[in-house]
Amino acid sequence: MITRKEMDRHDKNEKQINIFKNPKYRQSKAIDKLKEALTDDMKPMLIYGALEKSILVLYFSHSVIIPKFNNDKEDIKAKMRIIYKKYNMKNIIIFVDIRAKVINRPLPRSPKPPAFIERATGNFEIKADDDEISNKFKSIQNNIKECNNVWMDERQYARRWRL
């Protein structure tokens, strides 16, 4: 009699085998193996490879690699043919040509320092005799004190930038 544990183990193994049979997974693994044909200075700049129609497109992170790739294209194709035959990829991935493209990723920007630093704290005396004017000054004082917490973050930010 088969126990529940053995059935779970069998199901797990079957799921793993089904993943390996997935054509997209097999294509991605084949492309990973074909990346070995690139020269050593191209490998760190390679982001990923994809099959577009019948062309293998290799996406690089910098445009300097494109002319070098175009110069070494025939050598790369020859190395890929060897790898293709070595791992028997004819049922996994089929492509006619290879191309290189660049994915431009924006550089991380450093935060800009604030235009000015608010130095008001809201600690001032109100010497107005008129109630209407003194109420206006009190509302201004309260606004400054409320916004002081927000400005505190900017001050700390400005100290970092030595403003």
Whole-number radius of gyration? Answer: 32 Å
Give start-end ranges of low-pLDDT stretches: none
Instruction: Give the tally of structural domains.
Output: 2
Task: Could you tell me the CATH topology label of the largest domain.
Answer: Alpha-Beta Plaits
Oligomeric grouping of the chains: single chain
Query: In CATH terms, what is the architecture of the largest domain?
Result: 2-Layer Sandwich
H/E order of the elements? HHEEHHEH
| Structural class estimated from helices and strands | mainly alpha
Largest sheet: 3 strands, mixed
What portion of residues is helical?
40-55%
Our estimate of the beta-strand percent is 5-15%
- The order of strands across the largest sheet is 1-2-3
Q: What is the mean pLDDT? A: 78
What's the CATH class of the largest domain, please?
Alpha Beta
SS field, number of helical segments = 5
Overall 3D form: rod-shaped
Q: What is the CA–CA distance across the termini?
A: 78 Å
Total count of strands: 3
Structural commentary:
By secondary structure, the protein is mainly α. The protein folds into two domains: 12-102, Alpha-Beta Plaits (2-Layer Sandwich); 110-163, no CATH class. Helix content is 50%, strand content 12%. Strands 1-2-3 form a three-stranded mixed β-sheet, covered by helices on one side. It is rod-shaped.
